[in-house]
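In this section we walk through a basic example: taking a raw amino acid sequence and producing a predicted 3D structure, encoded as discrete structure tokens. The instruction is simple. Fold the sequence below.
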Amino acid sequence: MSVWTLYRHRNADGSSKDWAVRSNSDGSITTRWGKTDSRLPSSNTRTGIRQHDIERQKQAKGYVFVGKVEIDTDGNIRLPRSAPIADPVTVSIEMPPVAVDKLYWHVDCRAGHATLLDMGIALRRWLGDLEAWSQAQGFAASNWSGWQRLINASLGEEAFDLSGQIHREHGVLPWLWMMALKHAAFPGVLVGIASETGRDVSSDLKAETEVLALFDTDIEAIRPLAESLGLLKPRLDLALAMADQTDHWF
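The resulting token sequence is shown next.
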């Protein structure tokens, strides 16, 4: 058996598929793939590409790092030290925390025309909220190219598959926009966001302190904006709520 790097892509219907890669002694790259299981039946070997580069390509398409595994010549997967994978759907390897440098995003849209219209309306509404907040804070406009690419795609009538990156210099707004789209969970629209290490970024804003730190911000600094995007529940103003109550003490 040899050691491979295993990645997983989760589909909108709850299923998933795996992809594994290794570098060979002659400089070639071998990959294996298939639905998530204890065996990856399909394989391919090619030259002229580095393992690091092909892994990044997969991450940009929504594949998330699972861990280092051993795979035999028939494609059977085992964890290191020959421990069998008991549950291939949930297996994960604990990795030491690595500072987030950039984010990779991927949108796989197979929705119908009606959903595309709804998504396009939501994208433009969220963008308006982001621009208003940015202007109020006195921030410069972000030069991120993803704004127009996604909006243009949502105006069409066909399925699309887009991916890209969000760098520190783009600011926090593109990430919040993608988070809002992920959180909205439009049917037939699969949104993946991953860190440099391949860690899947959830739609739970409170759980993503690493990403907030990437953009030098925190929950409280962006709370009003996050609430307008539906990423946080509005806080209840108890003083205001009590002021609306009739005093029945006697």
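Looking at the output, two observations stand out. The helical segments are 51-60, 113-137, 146-154, 172-184, 209-214, 219-228, 238-243. Residues 81-98 have pLDDT under 50 and may be disordered. In the next section we compare this with other chains.
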